Amino acid sequence: MIPKQFILSSLKSLLTYLFFLFFLSQYAVFCPVPCGGVLIERRGTILSPGYPEPYSNYLNCAWRISVPEGAGIQIQVVTFATEHNWDSLDFFDGVDSNAPRLGSYSGTTIPQLLNSTSNNLYLTFQSDISVSAAGFHLEYTGMRDGMFASFYFVFVRLL
């Protein structure tokens, strides 16, 4: 025969487990990939909304990357796939879409590396009303005179 204390203890553990399982399923925080934003870290990641799942239709996203004055920005393309000729990712060498355009890309053709000539880079992504694709994964790094900005940031903080 199973002792009564063991049964009560097991039942209490089961109820506690079920309570937390219910609580987490009701109030868990889900962090979707944002459609745009302002990025000020010396390095970071930009993902298409929903990545790694395909992005949605009717998107109009904008990201602004800003690093310290005197630094530039390098984008490394990890993955890129959009609907060819309809959904595009545009790069502007400045703070907004009025800056010189570095390129507009769709489909699967994009340079592996893209470099700004200023300390700001503005990206826009638009998708149309139908057909989506896998999207994109970009990594950016602030650079100074051809060297990674992390060295620059360490040096500036020492001054």
Automatic annotation (TrEMBL):
Q: Which SMART domains match?
A: CUB (SM00042)
Question: At the top level of its lineage, which domain of life is listed?
Answer: Eukaryota
Q: Name one Pfam family in it.
A: CUB
Query: Organism, per UniProt?
Result: Xenotaenia resolanae
Q: What residue ranges carry the coiled-coil annotation?
A: none
Q: Does the keyword Thylakoid apply?
A: no
The identity of this protein, by name, is: CUB and sushi domain-containing protein 3
Q: Does Repeat show up as a keyword for this record?
A: yes
| Gene that encodes it | CSMD3_6
Question: Any idea which UniProt keywords this protein has?
Answer: Disulfide bond, Repeat
Residue span, CUB domain: 35-143
- Sorted alphabetically, which PANTHER family does this protein's record hold? OVOCHYMASE-RELATED
Cross-referenced InterPro entries: CUB_dom (IPR000859), Sperma_CUB_dom_sf (IPR035914)
